[in-house]
């Protein structure tokens, strides 16, 4: 298990993805999993960096990320002390509509939900705790 704290800044995204990829590969997983995990990690981290602290200008803006890559699954937990927001409560976009007719927003979290085997949100001790999990299929 690896745990790290990052500034909640889009500038940190490449460091976050590098740590996730390194941890997954060190655990013996195929690099074929990396693109799927990278998209999910990018979506969640960019949302934290862009919105979690938007109305909290004096807050210590960070995201704690825990990566647990085991034989049968990879679990990544994102924690921040930003404003409470559960993206899982948002309605899924109607992907049957042409892009120009869809409401703006929600497509990224929809892709995360569809690509992961488990996605949860909790508000615990004043923190947003967002967890994604992918099971091994090979």
Task: Considering the chains and any ligands shown, give keywords for the structure.
Heat Shock Protein 90, alpha+beta, 3 helices, 5 strands, 138 residues, five-stranded antiparallel β-sheet
Structure description:
By secondary structure, the protein is of the alpha+beta class. It has one domain: Histidine kinase-like ATPase, C-terminal domain (Heat Shock Protein 90, 2-Layer Sandwich), CATH 3.30.565. 30% of the residues lie in helices and 28% in strands. The protein contains three helices and five strands; from the N terminus they run E-H-H-E-E-H-E-E. The protein has a five-stranded antiparallel sheet, with helices on one face. Helix 2 runs antiparallel to helix 3 (107-115). It is globular, with a radius of gyration of 15 Å. The model has no long low-confidence stretch (mean pLDDT 89).
């Amino acid at each position: 298990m690896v745990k790290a704290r990052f500034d909640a800044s889009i500038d940190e995204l490449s460091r976050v993805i590098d740590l996730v990829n390194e941890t997954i590969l060190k655990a013996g997983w195929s690099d074929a999993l990396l693109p799927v995990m990278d998209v999910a990690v990018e979506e969640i981290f960019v949302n934290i960096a862009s919105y979690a602290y938007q109305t909290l200008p004096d807050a210590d803006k960070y995201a704690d990320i825990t990566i647990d890559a085991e034989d049968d699954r990879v679990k990544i937990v994102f924690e921040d002390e930003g404003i409470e927001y559960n993206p899982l409560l948002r309605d899924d976009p109607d992907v049957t509509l042409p892009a120009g007719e869809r409401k703006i927003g929600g497509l990224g979290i929809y892709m995360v939900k569809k690509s992961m085997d488990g996605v949860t949100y909790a508000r615990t001790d004043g923190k947003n705790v967002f967890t994604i999990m992918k099971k091994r299929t090979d």
